[in-house]
Amino acid sequence: MSLKNLGEVSYFRLNNEINIPVNGQIPLHRDHDALDAFFAENVTPNYMTFDSLEARFDYLLKHDYIERAFLEKYDFSFVKSLNDWLYAQNFKFKSFMAAYKFYQQYALHTNDGTAYLEHLEDRVLLNALYFADGNEEMARQIADEMINQRYQPATPSFLNAGRSRRGELVSCFLIQTTDDMNSIGRSVNSALQLSRIGGGVGLNLSNLREAGAPIKGIENAASGVVPVMKLYEDSFSYSNQLGQRQGAGVTYLSVFHPDIIAFLSTKKENADEKIRVKTLSLGVTVPDKYYELVRDNADMFLFSPYDVERIYGKPFSYVDITAEYDRMAANPNIKKYRIRARDLEQEIAKLQQESGYPYIVNIDTANKANPIDGRIVMSNLCSEILQVQTPSLLNEDQTYQTLGTDISCNLGSTNVVNLMQTTDFEKSIDAMVHALTFVTDNSDISSVPTVQNGNQQAHTMGLGAMGLHSYFAQNHIVYGSPESIEFTDVYFELLNFYTLKSSNKIARERGVSFANFERSKYADGSYFDDYIASNKVLSEKVASLFDGIAVPTSADWARLKADIQADGLYHQNRLAVAPNGSISYINDVSASIHPITQRIEERQEKKTGKIYYPARGLATDTIPYYTSAYDMDMRRVIDVYAAATKHVDQGLSMTLFMRSDIPRGIYEWKTDTKQTTRDLNILRNYAHHKGVKSIYYVRTFTDNGDEVGANQCESCVI
After folding, report:
1. Is the distance from CB of 357 to CB of 281 less than 8 angstroms?
2. Which of 165, 180, 163 lies closest to 70, judged by CA?
3. Which are the catalytic amino acids?
4. Residue 198 has pLDDT above 90, yes or no
């Protein structure tokens, strides 16, 4: 028997029996039966064994499965001891879904696809050795964090570490265009290159002149942003990593761009094929001024980017529209177009109902919270990366007269359930920071110089979290309750404090800080004012949850401030909460920090049919705390995200979960159950009011069991 011919197996049937109640009870034991059967019938007979670890590595090296250079940084006796230690931890998957996902998507297979070459311990070993870069003590610590599932690298890092035939270790990229043909051409090439090496790509189109704008004095010559979007979509379709997956991209446009209606129309179901984009995602950057105009039921002006750049001397994205709106409106030299703000608001809500798009980036909120000198102008494919960029200036031959900075995303996640059991929170976070730093230091995106330049200057990373709802349920905390918000606040303060501490230590050891550190709010100390002034007193329940974990005091923050002002920070950005895909199943926890969608989640696998996944720790006592996101007031989800946002220097990928037929009693403003655009308008405005920086998908569960706007961000999820 081999993976190519498994014959009759029982594990799918056993797993499917979870969904068939017995005497009114969920037969959860069937999932454990399926897990046992999966190992007996699939994994054990198809795992290639060797007489010794030396023989195993000789085989992997001889057949070009793994790189040699990182192994040669260690004495092999250490590699063997770490391998033995990992297997001695007796790791066990807790669900069929977790094991199935790992062996199908992450474990190394033989070239002919007939056998497995890795268990989870083997994958963790290569990750630890690779990211520790020859440091034995750090390799032990990273291995400890990963085998105990306190830390999970992003899919590209976890999957590719140590492999000789691999993609990049980073997750996704952000690039921008300026208002000239050279920049557009260069960005199309960049999209091709970045999609080829493995990442989803975010593209900012706000600087491009609108359709009908003049070119070199010729009126109505410009074609606007939509034809450029079609170029990107075709590029991603073509550059699909040897057919392994569809290339993925998102285009961002300012809500004040004259092409905004045409931009949104590209995703409508009845859009003409000439303008329709099928696979490209849409995002809108929204300044505070827009919310003000909607609230006042006022007209709004859309401004020509060409004229704005001519008057202000910088690309449209880099102009603070909220601050400049009245002057721009009064300037006769800036062409403008008048529409009703609420008409546009209605168009956005209607499209979100229909497709889940556009993502929303509250761009002023992001910039107000940004401690770095410069301007955030866009986000990424999953809306959690928010970093400053600088535009490039190109020569006619597409070489760079001024090399700007763009972004590569380097992600990882803490597992809240397991990290809260650690004996040393600081030590755990330090290992995670070092693992992420290795990826940042060793990323080589030379094919796109702006991304390379940005990474070399900023050394950014994005550590986040998964399993928050799982943790709440296990501790009998209602998602969205005051206790859940308080816990989230403290947990993310801990992430912030200890990542800052680790980054400061690396800066001190290397004598290097990120570029322009001296112009940041870290350097002038203002970033720390609120933390130092805080005299937080925890409730009895939340205090008990953090018993044994060092929660930083005002004095701790004051000392950290002094250390950072003295020695700097290595990383410009440190925290970001991405969505989680299959990797959260492997960790046996709820995805990201949002609520679960189903107590027994149903997944449609391409070749095998339906697989069922019971929520972590689902039992009689936890069922009341596992409310589906679709049956929850989304304001409570926003409240939880807002609590985390205060401490996250980038963004959080927040999805809104709605039903087409909303249960009565969830929202006090509703007199019937039908979802309306007003519901989405209220929730988007509430999120803005609470200081949430971005909204990812709006997912709608329909009466016929379909999901509109289901998560498609496969390239960027952790």
Report:
1. yes
2. 163
3. 380, 382, 384
4. no
